[in-house]
Structures are given as structure tokens and as C-alpha cells.
Design goal:
The protein is an alpha/beta fold. It has a domain at 5-144 and 163-187 and 236-241: Rossmann fold, CATH 3.40.50. Helix content is 40%, strand content 22%. It contains 9 helices and 7 strands, in the order ααβαβαββαβααβααβ. The protein has helices at 5-22, 24-36, 54-60, 75-84, 121-131, 146-154, 167-177, 195-205, 216-225; strands at 44-48, 67-72, 91-95, 106-112, 132-140, 182-192, 230-241. It binds S-adenosylmethionine. The site of S-adenosylmethionine has 22 residues, from α1, α2, α3 and β2.
């Protein structure tokens, strides 16, 4: 699938009001990522692709004194965060593309389920690793929503999903950037009563971009004929690159 930055921005702008009530997996992953962090005392933190602030919310319970910089491509996501954290002077904001941002040196760069939207993940991770003492991120890996892809394929419909790296390639990339990288993979599953419910879920999450499904006629037939629930699996890779770690179990 090809997608433009404008597509992504617009999809997440539209999803901002529905994101929090829809993004249950993203919420779990954000809290898990913060839980996996080593014992740190970061004075400065960047939350990259902050969305509505799940990661920052979790970090604020641990690091109240730190300064935070929240970056997101979506004006609406940033506007929502500015409102939510209006009382906190320690938080600054930027509407920006993670691939072209001029990062300052910082103690911790953290990002939950956002870097899969990078146009050049290798270059992005390399930049982040050069700017922060610790980089902690989650991203989707190959096999995410495989059930959905399979269903589309057997019905002759080409996949509208993002191309995702394999767990193996991504682990190798992280280890090349930092040999002490801690990597863990986790699967999360969700079941939807109908295909339409799944499509609505994707839209409310902002995960629909670009031209979407091309073969509208076949897709309509599939929606009408598929009466079983649809279970989809998120394959999430957690990576922590830095010097000091508590072991991940
Ligand atoms: C799935 S949401 C995750 C949001 C948040 N990190 C969370 O844990 O809920 C992905 C976020 O990444 C942002 N995003 C996508 N592409 C981006 C880019 N190129 N630069 C900055 N942010 C981007 C989206 O606007 C969206 O808010």
C-alpha cells in the first residue's frame, strides 16, 4: 500500500475524538512499554507520535518532575494534548513529521505504535538512537491483521495494509544500532462481530489511509456474505535501546 503524509494526518485528525474509546490495544501497549522501561531518572522526554497521550499519561505517574516534548503529525492530536495538559508547564508540543524533525539531545525518546508510519524506519531509528540515552518504542510487525489479509486474498481483494517489517529484521536493526537492545514480541487479539464493525474500528482509530480497498464490488459482496465474527491479531514488537536495563521477563 502507498500512503502520503497528508493521508495519515487527515485520518488521525478525524479519529482524534474517537481514539481514546477505540484504542484499547494501543492503551495496553503504551502501559506495557512504560512498565518495561529500565530504572531511569530522565529529566527530558520526547513522546513521539503521542496521539492522545497514552504514553505521557503513564510516564507522568512515574516521572512527574521531567520535562516532556510531545510530537505528532496530527494537528488535532496535538490540540487535544495541549488541552489535556494545559496545567502542566513542563510539557511542550510540536506538530511535525517524525521523519524530518530536528531532534534535540534528550534522555528518553519513547514512542508507542507510531513509528510504523515512518517512510524510512531504519533512518528514523538511527537518528533517534543518536539523540537519546534511551530509546523505547513499540511498532507493528509483519503478520499483523494476517487474518484480515487472508480473508481479502481468498476473495480476490488486494491488501490495503501497511507493509510491515518482520520481527527478525527489526530485531536485527535494533541490535545493529545498540547491541544491548532489549526486544520482546507480544500478540494482542480482538474479535469483531462483523467486517463492518472492524472497518469502523479502523476508521475510529485513524488506521485507514490512502485509497483503501480498491475493488469495491468484491468488497461489498464479501461484507454481505461473511457472517462469522472476525478475529484479528496485532503483532507488536517492543524495543528498548539504552545502557541500563532491568531485565524484561
Ligand atoms: C496509533 S497512534 C498511537 C498514538 C499514541 N502513541 C498511543 O500510544 O496511543 C499513531 C500516532 O502517530 C502519529 N503519526 C503518524 N505518522 C506520523 C509521522 N510521520 N510523524 C509524527 N507522528 C505521526 C499519528 O498522528 C497518531 O497520532
Amino acid at each position: 500500500m502507498t500512503w502520503t503524509i497528508t493521508d495519515v494526518q487527515s485520518a488521525f485528525d478525524k479519529a482524534q475524538p474517537t481514539y481514546d474509546t477505540t484504542a484499547t490495544i494501543q492503551y495496553q501497549a503504551a502501559n506495557q512499554l512504560v512498565d518495561y522501561l529500565p530504572l531511569l531518572n530522565p529529566s527530558s522526554i520526547i513522546d513521539l507520535g503521542c496521539g492522545t497521550g497514552f504514553v505521557t499519561d503513564a510516564l507522568l505517574t512515574k516521572y512527574k518532575e521531567s520535562s516532556y516534548h510531545l510530537i505528532d503529525l496530527s494537528d488535532q492530536m496535538i490540540a487535544g494534548c495541549q488541552q489535556k495538559y494545559a496545567d502542566l508547564d513542563s510539557i511542550t508540543f510540536a506538530t511535525a513529521n517524525m521523519d524530518h524533525y530536528a531532534y534535540s539531545k534528550t534522555d528518553l525518546i519513547i514512542s508507542n505504535l507510531a513509528v510504523q508510519w515512518s517512510k524510512d524506519l531504519r533512518a528514523l531509528l538511527s537518528t533517534l538512537a543518536s539523540k537519546a540515552s534511551t530509546v523505547a518504542f513499540t511498532t507493528l510487525t509483519h503478520g499483523t491483521f494476517q487474518e484480515w489479509e487472508d480473508l481479502l486474498r481468498i476473495n480476490g481483494i488486494s491488501s490495503p495494509l501497511l507493509p510491515l517489517p518482520s520481527t527478525q529484521d527489526l530485531s536485527q536493526l535494533c541490535h545493529n544500532l545498540n547491541q544491548d537492545s532489549q526486544i520482546i514480541s507480544k500478540d494482542y487479539q480482538l474479535t469483531f462481530p462483523t467486517i463492518s464493525a472492524f472497518i469502523l474500528y479502523l476508521r475510529n482509530l485513524g488506521a485507514t489511509t490512502g485509497k483503501g480497498i480498491q475493488d469495491k464490488a468484491k468488497f461489498k459482496t464479501l461484507i454481505q456474505s461473511h457472517k462469522e465474527p472476525l478475529t484479528v491479531t496485532y503483532k507488536v514488537l517492543f524495543c528498548i535501546m539504552g545502557k541500563k536495563y532491568k531485565p524484561i521477563s
